[in-house]
């Protein structure tokens, strides 16, 4: 998604991983871990 | 990190329709039955986990807090100022819009956009209850119902990942922001391309 912001023309694109994000159900959590799923805070300027 | 969408996602129109229906169903369920169990943490527990100020959660209407289904805290970096115009993309039950409205004050304006008209009305009611000024427009994030260069700040929380057309959504954000405007968005990303079985599972996509 970082690249999508840059491609659209946004400047100063920054991303930070959201600490503590997790899925509640263990089965979903395991799949998410396997795929490297994370929550991220993006900031950018037009 | 990569986008969650499959590379050919924009060619999967029938699946997109199914997923849109499941997204509507899932988040309406969170709004109407926040006591239920979902794949994700929600409500006050989730908001506290992401660092929402307790004062905000005490002040906001309980129905807005209980239906919170975000994945982070966009307010940490939004730096909202009095008088600014804010777009809350995918405003849901309205908690983030209400918090934004408190920050931009009576000279500012908060506009929510949500796919679900019921959620829009709920968000506006929650905002009124809390003394916050917020208006909600029913609309799709791929076609944001706002003019070009009309907002100072975009906030959003766990919404863009639900779209099959993320590139289009991001272009729309660029279009509606004023030059120099900014965004503060929390969302879900995946380091690896998801398998087609996951992409095809509307329930997993919606969660």
Characterise the protein shown here:
The complex is a heterodimer of chains A (46) and B (207). Chain A has helices spanning 2-8, 26-34; strands at 11-17, 37-45. With 46 residues, chain A is of the alpha+beta class. Chain A has one domain. A two-stranded antiparallel ribbon of chain A has the order 1-2. In chain A, 33% of the residues are buried. Chain B is of the alpha/beta class. In chain B, strands 3-2-1-4-5 form a 5-stranded parallel sheet. The longest helix of chain B has 20 residues, at 13-32. Residues 1-7 of chain B have low confidence and may be disordered. Classes of the chains: A alpha+beta (46), B alpha/beta (207). Strand 2 of chain A pairs antiparallel with strand 5 (177-190) of chain B.
Topology:
The complex is a heterodimer of chains A (46) and B (207).
Chain A: H1 2-8, E1 11-17, H2 26-34, E2 37-45
Antiparallel strand pairs in A: 1-2
Chain B: H1 13-32, H2 43-49, H3 54-59, H4 62-66, E1 85-89, H5 95-104, E2 109-114, H6 117-130, E3 135-138, E4 151-157, H7 166-176, E5 177-190, H8 196-199, H9 202-206
Parallel strand pairs in B: 1-2, 1-4, 2-3, 4-5
What would the keywords be for this entry?
heterodimer, A: 46 residues, alpha+beta, two-stranded antiparallel ribbon, 2 helices, 35% strand, B: 207 residues, alpha/beta, Rossmann fold, 5-stranded parallel β-sheet, 9 helices, disordered N terminus
